[in-house]
Amino acid sequence: MKTAAASASPRRFRRRPAWAGRNYTLLTAAAVVTNLGSQGALIAAAFAVLDTGGDGGDVGLVAAARTLPLVVFLLIGGAVADRLPRHRVMVAANALNFVSQGAFAVLVLAGDPQLWQMMLLSGLGGVGQAFFNPAAEGMLMSSVSGEQAGRAFALFRMAMQGAGLGGAALGGAMVAVVGPGWVLLVDAAAFAVAGALRSFLDVSHIPPREPGGGMLADLRDGWREFIGRPWLWSIVAQFSVVVAVVGAAESVFGPLVARDELGGAGPWGLALGAFGAGTVGGALLMMRWKPRRLLLAGTLCVFPLAAPSAALAVPLPVAGLAMVMFLSGVAIEVFGVSWMTALHQEIPEEKLSRVSAYDWFGSIAMVPLATALAGPAESAFGRTASLWGCAALVVLVTAAVLFVPDVRNLRRRTAEVVQVGGPGTVADGRAEAAGGASEDVSEARLNPRASEDVSEARLNPRASEDVSEARLNPRASKDVCEARLNPRASEDVSEARLNPR
To answer: Which residue stretches of the chain have pLDDT < 70?
Structure first.
């Protein structure tokens, strides 16, 4: 009896799942802290501009001042994150955000900040984000491995989305009670806390980088990795359109429809809150569901993103719009987790940050253009026709991606994995049910040379991924053998891939 109780006690009192290692826990905690502050800061920055006598155009200028450096420096940020220790890039970016946001808060609290000052400080924040995003995604991907990677990404995204919901609600209330300056100051403090947490990340399990051929060579190498995978560049091209038109519908047309048809800002806020709740629900779903065809399942879940634009075009009553937004939130989370799992599985670790940078760049590059054209489109075609056009574009580009064979056929890896070692990694020591090991053995019997691959896969979990990729795509075997899993690459895969903002 005593032995049984003793053996049960560690499981009973375990504070976190076996797959949630130290690095993963630190990254998740830091992301929650950052999102709590940043969502409120977005509201505070807009009201800070308005409180100085600015108008909607001035608010747009401050927002654009943050977006432009983000787009310009993303690719450089990805190359830097694959060249330097990613956790140091993340901490440095957090420090820059702490300084810029703290200065913004001081200006607002002191009274009468100038528009150019707010634009400059917002731009510095965008530079920090450009370096942070690729490094953070790569770091997250290198912190998990094995069968439970999808569950880990789902939990991470659920924590982020939940923190974002809470941060927006708390930030809005604080702006009303204490003013935008104090909310910006809280956001600066959140960056400081998150940076401190990320400074404790352990990267001893990641092999040191090989000397590279310079920044341009790194960018070219990342581009070859990106363009050489049809599933990768085709989905990024798809999302360059999807994110742009969904962003235009939600940031420009949505508030106008709410004002004219639904009763004002309150109903629109309820609809956006329903979308956020849907993302949390989708992450919960993906903690249990493991679709075998990752990208097929994810891409099919992009079609519902056309529904909010269609609902606004009708327009549906508030209850119907909220339901549509909730379902689209669930759908985008299914895509997001599937996408992160595919990147984690297929991209060499040492190239993850550069690939993530191209991913981010392609996904957001058209957003400023789409939002700028929304007004002229409404004047030329009418609001209803423009919204139906947004919905149609989402459906068309998503249907087009399904014609790419790799999107339909890329499968979740099923291979036996063992503990790699190192405090920053997580591995599941069990064979996955769908029979990856049995497939290797069968191939070894048919092809004697395959037995060498099987043996290497058992001794080295990374090798199993190489073997699987070579079987699925013979053309990929050259790239895979070339430098399979540069430990830096996994960190690039964006932390929260594509929630159409």
So the answer is: 1-20, 56-57, 60, 146-147, 205-213, 265, 414-501
Q: CB atoms < 10 A from the CB of 289, how many?
A: 15
DSSP state of 490: G
Cα–Cα distances (Å) from 85 to 95, 198, 434, 467, in that order, read: 16, 12, 36, 28
- Contacts of residue 168, defined as CB under 8 A and 6 or more positions apart, other chains included, come to 39, 40, 42, 43, 276
Cβ neighbours around 120 below 10 Å, total:
16
Contact 187, 35 (CB under 8 A): no
What's the pTM? 0.67
List the beta strands (DSSP E) in 291-425: none
- What is the Cα–Cα distance from 223 to 178, expressed in whole angstroms? 47
Per DSSP (E only), the strands in 34-182 are none
389-405 pLDDT, tens digit each: 999 999 999 999 999 99
Q: Computed from CA positions of residues 346, 427, 337, 272, in that sequence, does the dihedral angle turn out positive or negative? A: negative
Nearest alpha carbon to residue 241 among 355, 359, 366, 325: 366
The CA distance from 287 to 277, in Å, is 16
For the segment 192-212, what is each residue's pLDDT rounded down to a tens digit? 999 999 999 887 766 666 655
Residue 100: burial class (beta carbons within 10 Å; 0-12, 13-18, 19+): buried
